[in-house]
Write a structure and sequence with these properties.
Layout (H helix, E strand, L loop, with lengths): L9 E5 L6 E6 L4 E6 L5 E6 L6 E7 L4 E6 L2 E6 L3
Antiparallel strand pairs: 1-2, 2-3, 3-4, 5-6, 6-7
């Protein structure tokens, strides 16, 4: 899976020692991206026109959930990874 569009404005990177993934918030492309920490390969990318003014993300690795703060809203995304 290729990263499309190219990374434009990384705002935040999250992970924890137990997670095999790296989570990246790409503000200008209105998405967050999940990479495999070992191979560097793209696992998933989630984007939406509703993700305006992305500010922050919180990852709950064990629960497989990501919370995004965009503008004045919080979005919950279940990653299933």
């Amino acid at each position: 899976m290729a990263l499309n569009p190219a990374l434009a404005s990384p705002k935040q990177i999250e992970t924890d020692i137990e997670s095999p993934y790296l989570y990246l918030l790409d503000q200008n492309n209105q998405r967050f991206i999940i990479f495999d920490k070992i191979s560097g390969q793209l696992k998933r990318q989630y984007s939406s026109k509703e993700f305006t003014d992305l500010k922050s993300l919180v990852v709950e690795t064990k629960e497989k959930k990501v919370y995004l703060l965009a503008d004045k809203k919080i979005y919950l995304i279940e990653t299933n990874l």
